[in-house]
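Hi R.,

Here's the chain you asked about this morning:
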Amino acid sequence: LECMEEGSVTIDGETHHLPKPFMVMATMNPLEFEGTYPLPEAQLDRFLMKLVITHLPPEQEEALLVKVNQNDGALRPEIVS
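And the predicted structure, written out as tokens:
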């Protein structure tokens, strides 16, 4: 959460300033997992949105995998840096 508050991150004691704008993407473990706790409201307020991603139905998942594995050029993964 340091990056959202201070615009920098510290790795091995060295502070790195982040370019502006920057985007934070995070995952959240279910509360049922051992050792997980809900974030305080003050920290939750730092996130613009929460996306809940569920699994596709099996037939749609299979169709997606078939499409991705075709080499027709319809789906081209782009390199993100």
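Helices lie at 2-6, 41-44, 58-69.

Let me know if you need anything else.
M.
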